[in-house]
From TrEMBL, chain A:
Superkingdom of this protein's organism: Eukaryota
Name of encoding gene: LOC107389261
Cited InterPro entries: G_SEPTIN_dom, P-loop_NTPase, Septin, Septin7
Coiled coil: 330-415
One BP term from GO: cell division
Subcellular location: Chromosome, Centromere, Kinetochore; Cleavage furrow; Cytoplasm, Cytoskeleton, Cilium axoneme; Cytoplasm, Cytoskeleton, Spindle
Name of the protein: Septin
Boundaries of every Septin-type G domain copy: 37-310
UniProt keyword Transcription present: no
An annotated GO cellular component: midbody
Classification via PROSITE patterns: G_SEPTIN
Similarity-based family: Belongs to the TRAFAC class TrmE-Era-EngA-EngB-Septin-like GTPase superfamily. Septin GTPase family.
Gene source species: Nothobranchius furzeri (Turquoise killifish)
Keywords, sorted A to Z: Cell cycle, Cell division, Cell projection, Centromere, Chromosome, Cilium, Coiled coil, Cytoplasm, Cytoskeleton, GTP-binding, Kinetochore, Mitosis, Nucleotide-binding
Gene Ontology MF annotations: GTP binding
From TrEMBL, chain B:
Keyword Glycosyltransferase: no
Species: Nothobranchius furzeri
InterPro entries: G_SEPTIN_dom, P-loop_NTPase, Septin
Residue ranges constituting the Septin-type G domain according to the UniProt record: 39-305
PANTHER family according to UniProt: SEPTIN (PTHR18884)
Encoding gene, per UniProt annotation: SEPTIN6
Keyword Coiled coil: yes
Biological classification of the source: Eukaryota, Metazoa, Chordata, Craniata, Vertebrata
Keyword annotations from UniProtKB, A to Z: Coiled coil, GTP-binding, Nucleotide-binding
Protein name per UniProt: Septin
UniProt xrefs under Pfam families: Septin (PF00735)
Family affiliation: Belongs to the TRAFAC class TrmE-Era-EngA-EngB-Septin-like GTPase superfamily. Septin GTPase family.
Molecular function (Gene Ontology), one example: GTP binding
Coiled coil: 321-399
């Protein structure tokens, strides 16, 4: 793989512009393109039935998401927790929004509610997995973002505190999705009760270390003032209404009681009636994009890194996992490959060494035995040669003796011959015989 | 950074519903824009062109500032790329601009490999991004994107046609980066020549299949201006950082004895058009094209090269996990195989060597067996010689002792002769032979003389 060159991390110098350049228009370009693309948002609502979830959705988006033709899940009786999604396309001011509402009918309605959060978790994870697979394909085309961007959790207005189910659910989901707790049907609480209830809830949330979605500060001081005000009001207490009633000559959305109308839509300065408008403002008008960003940069990345770590750390001891998480699995494989190559080289070198040594040994042995045999051969040769010499000497001596004796014999022979001649003479003279 | 907002598909099963009032999500684009402005923008330009065509000057003119760098000499041995990053700000928009210059382009005698370092540089930036994207723990939203968003290709103002170096280089780059060709130092060409030049260039590019960047015409708000500008490509530009007083204003211009070329005068050159198109209208599109087209192509090729596929043989889509696991298993299998192979090779070698050495040993033994045999033959011969010598010695001894015996007997017989003459030579002849007799007789004579 190509290594990053040094020029990729340059030192950055400041420069002042001496005239018009034009990139101040970039935001407009971004604006234009985003409008053309359109937007997506997925909102999940979780809570026991009868807490006014469907009503709230309709109110929030000022539309009949759930109507006679498309009845909300609460109208249907469920035995187990279901996860249902409805997609609608809404347009406003030239901006298109594809809104997905995910409802969880049956949540908390059973007698035994253990694991009723599991289908919710499964849904969220499966959407993340879809995105992960789409992102990891070789041929990437359109990657629709169906991940859950926000989860509104409805708390029943008991006035006391969080139920164990509430705590359990939020603890399990705060790492997977942006959780915004709401107090549902707030018109059953007086303002003082509401205040107390809110304080209690926040206390319990902090006790259990539940991480709910935090509205981030902006650079605008005005906005920051509002944000701080909102943070004090958390969790928001809401009243939803599909009905328009008349109050003081004005048409408002609200709930009509014999003792008055609990308004929903008007934003009174001190937010007297309820926090609904605050909710709509924060959720839709100012922080929708941030919810998506946090989902993408935090929750999804968590999911992804967990998933990939599980894949690549298969069979590898945990002491090494920390360092490996900063590399892509492919880079990791590359490194393993390199390590292996080195290991092989070392092994090869070792084997070579052993081999050479053994060969040398054997050769040496062979040489030694050859030398030994040579030596013996030499010795035998010498021995033979000595014997030969000895023999030669003996023969010589013998020859000499023989020659001498034969010379002697010859002299004797001569004498004999002479003697026989004289004897013949004597014979003739009659001396002998 | 760009992530889930890039690709989108409004699928089926979506119904449009009317709104009963103002909800407020029409602020979404503003929200998005605000976030982008807060984060700051980033843009990377690559300038490719021969030395002396005014690349650095044009950058300075375009961005109204003085960037680094001295003019380079013509004696570079190869093409190197120098990149510098600057932080610019215009009203509330912050831009991290990276300007990459090709140093030494077109100066060598053999220019065959000139394009290689440029392609390598572009690929390196893609690779860095790909690596970041593939990490397990990644930080894409704060990643400093170094991918080249636009490549300004400087064409020398010859007035005739493109050089073959230009065609070759642009052909190699058109699938990797957005190419915006410009005619550099165009104040050297007259108006009529320029028109012909532009037509020639465009037709050469088309006939060679070079895909240059086209300003997008799919967005109604900019479609018209973009399509008009498309017809003016390639832009003929003049760059200058010097100012000349025209009327009562100071304008950027180049002063000649015969007149002054004003950079920002649209009658004089296309500089303003370039600035409009490159920066003011289509900067974001250039970035988007780089990410969705050029980078995706690089990524696809790279992954395919490494053996990743989207579907298994049964055309069921792979999940990422399966893919990685499969890859890993394959990889481990490969490593093990290599190890085995090496081991086998060694075993083989050992066997061979053993056989060799055994052969040598056998030979040695044979050799010495032969020598031994030789020895034994020699020894035998020696023995035989010894024996024959011994035999001779024995025979000689026998002869000697026989002769002495005869002599002794002759002496004894001399004493007997005086008493038994007649039977003497009968006795003599039967005991010792003629020689013995004569010897004897000589002695006898000696004895008779004594009598």
């Amino acid at each position: 793989m190509i290594e990053r060159p040094e020029t990729a991390v340059p030192s950055i110098a400041q420069r002042n512009l001496e005239g018009y350049v034009g990139f101040a228009n970039l935001p407009n370009q971004v604006y234009r393109k985003s409008v053309k693309r359109g937007f997506e948002f997925t909102l999940m609502v979780v809570g026991e039935s009868g807490l006014g979830k469907s009503t709230l959705i309709n109110s929030l988006f000022l539309t009949d998401l759930y109507s006679k033709d498309y009845p909300g899940p609460s109208q249907r009786i469920k035995k187990t927790v279901q996860v249902e999604q409805s997609k609608v396309l809404i347009k406003e001011g030239g901006v298109q929004l594809t809104l997905t509402i995910v409802d969880t009918p049956g949540f908390g309605d059973a007698v035994d509610n253990s694991n009723c959060w599991q289908p919710v978790i499964n849904y969220i994870d499966s959407k993340c997995e879809d995105f992960l697979n789409a992102e990891s394909r070789v041929n990437r085309r359109s990657m629709p973002d169906n991940r859950v961007h926000c989860c509104l959790y409805f708390i029943a207005p008991s006035g006391h505190g969080l139920k164990p189910l509430d705590i359990e659910f939020m603890k399990r989901l705060h790492d997977k999705v942006n959780v915004i707790p709401l107090i549902a049907k707030a018109d059953t609480l007086t303002p003082e009760e509401c205040q107390l209830f809110k304080k209690q809830i926040m206390k319990e949330i902090q006790e259990h270390k539940i991480k709910i979605y935090e509205f981030p500060d902006t650079e605008d001081d005005e906005d920051n003032k509002l944000i701080r005000k909102v943070k004090e009001k958390m969790p928001l207490a809401v009243v939803g209404s599909n009905v328009v009633v008349e109050v003081n000559g004005k048409k408002v959305r609200g709930r009509q009681y014999p003792w008055g109308v609990a308004e929903e839509g008007i934003f009174v300065e001190n937010g007297e009636h309820c926090d609904f408008t605050v909710l709509r403002n924060m959720l839709i008008r100012t922080h929708m994009q941030d919810l998506k960003d946090v989902t993408n940069n935090v929750h999804y990345e968590n999911y992804r890194s967990k998933k990939l770590a599980a894949v690549t750390c298969n069979g590898v001891d945990t002491s090494k996992t920390k360092g490996q998480l900063t590399k892509s699995p492919l880079a990791q494989m590359e490194e393993e490959r390199r390590e292996h190559v080195m290991k092989m080289k070392k092994m090869e070198a070792e084997m070579e060494q052993v081999f050479e040594m053994k060969v040398k040994e054997k050769k040496q042995k062979l040489k030694d035995s050859e030398a030994e045999l040579e030596r013996r051969h030499e010795q035998m040769k010498k021995n033979l040669e000595a014997q030969y010499k000895e023999l030669e000497e003996k023969r010589r001596v013998f020859e000499e003796e023989k020659v001498n004796w034969e010379a002697q014999q010859r002299i004797l022979e001569q004498q004999k011959l002479d003697a026989s001649k004289t004897m013949e003479k004597n014979k003739k003279k009659g001396k002998i015989f | 950074m760009k992530s889930e907002d890039d690709f989108r598909n409004v699928g089926e099963g979506v119904r449009a519903v009317p709104l009963a009032g103002h909800v407020g999500f029409d602020s979404m684009p503003d929200q998005l824009v605000n976030k982008s402005v807060n984060r700051g923008f980033c843009f990377n330009i690559l300038c490719v062109g021969e030395t002396g065509l005014g690349k650095s000057t044009l950058m300075d003119t375009l961005f109204n500032t003085k960037f680094e760098g001295e003019p380079t000499q013509h004696n570079q041995p190869g093409v190197t790329l120098k990149s510098n990053t600057y932080e610019l700000q215009e009203s509330n928009v912050r831009l991290k601009l990276t300007v990459v210059n090709t140093v030494g382009f077109g100066d060598q005698i053999n220019k065959e490999d000139s394009y290689k370092s440029i392609v390598e540089f572009i690929d390196t930036q893609f690779e860095a991004y790909l690596q970041e994207e593939l990490k397990i723990k990644r930080t894409l939203h704060s990643y400093h994107d170094t991918r080249i968003h636009a490549c300004l290709y400087f064409i020398a103002p010859t007035g005739h046609s493109l050089k073959s170096l230009d065609l070759v280089t642009m052909k190699k780059l058109d699938s990797k980066v957005n190419i915006v060709p410009i005619v550099a130092k165009s104040d050297a060409i007259s108006k009529s020549e320029l028109a012909k030049f532009k037509i020639k260039i465009t037709s050469e590019l088309v006939s060679n299949g070079v895909q240059i960047y086209q300003f997008p015409t799919d967005d109604e708000s900019v479609a018209e201006i973009n399509s008009t500008m498309n017809s003016h490509l390639p832009f003929a530009v003049v760059g200058s950082t010097e100012e000349v007083k025209i009327g009562n204003k100071m304008v950027k211009a180049r002063q000649y004895p015969w007149g002054t070329v004003q950079v920002e005068n649209e009658n004089h050159c296309d500089f303003v058009k370039l600035r409009e198109m490159l920066i003011r209208v289509n900067m974001e599109d250039l970035r988007e094209q780089t990410h969705t087209r050029h980078y995706e192509l690089y990524r696809r090729c790279k992954l395919e090269e490494m053996g990743f596929k989207d579907t298994d043989p049964d055309s069921k889509p792979f999940s990422l996990q399966e893919t990685y696991e499969a890859k890993r298993n394959e990889f481990m299998g490969e490593l093990q195989k290599k190890e085995e192979e090496m081991r086998q090779m060694f075993v083989q070698r050992v066997k061979e060597k053993e056989a060799e050495l055994k052969e040598a040993e056998k030979e040695l033994h044979e050799k010495f067996d032969r020598l031994k045999k030789l020895h034994q033959d020699e020894k035998k011969k020696l023995e035989e010689k010894k024996k024959s010598l011994d035999d001779e010695v024995n025979m000689f001894k026998q002869k000697k002792t026989a002769a002495e015996l005869l002599l002794n007997q002759a002496q004894q017989a001399g004493v007997v002769l005086s008493t038994h003459r007649s039977s003497f030579h009968v006795w003599l002849f039967s005991h010792g032979g003629f020689d013995a007799l004569w010897l004897h007789l000589i002695n006898l004579k000696a004895i008779t003389k004594l009598f």
